Amino acid sequence: NPRIRRIKYEDPHKDFLSLEELNKLMHTECHCPLLKKAAVFSALSGLRFSDIKKLTWSEVNISKEMGPHLILKQKKTKEDVMLPISRQAFDLLGTQGITGEKVFNGLEYSAYYNKHLYQWIRAAGISKKITFHCFRHTYATLQHSHGTDLYTLSSLLGHKRIKTTQIYAHVVNKLKREAADRIILDI
Fold this sequence. Notes:
Layout: H1 19-26, H2 33-45, H3 49-54, E1 60-63, E2 67-73, E3 80-84, H4 87-92, H5 111-123, H6 133-145, H7 150-157, H8 162-165, H9 167-180
Antiparallel strand pairs: 1-2, 2-3
């Protein structure tokens, strides 16, 4: 219909933490240790809150061939995925619990947890508006900025389409622009 105007698509702004900020958070006390553990795990694995909340010990694996990995059905996509995770992410989980028991037992999305998240972020001296989902963006952005190609990143994030992952290419271009402008001579 010629009278209907097309809505322009704008990439949503996705906040993320730098590696330095993530390290600050690691060394900052959080009044809710379960939240801190889950958030850092998301930043190290790229897992969504919904998948972290339902993650059970039977989905956490380690083998000689594949190293530490998760085998799970993603809540959002309903896809069965095998996701390799770093040794650091695996070790963060702690001692293997009972099969079928939740790894992050008691974790909820609530005003209570959000309050502790914001307090923890501020205590670390970070002024960005960081939500739990930003830890997933942090993972993706850090992976891509450290050389992980979009196809591999898409697979690690469990995206069905690579187009969903392409947002991180724009973020890295912004990082390149900022890096290029860092060296300024006194003229």
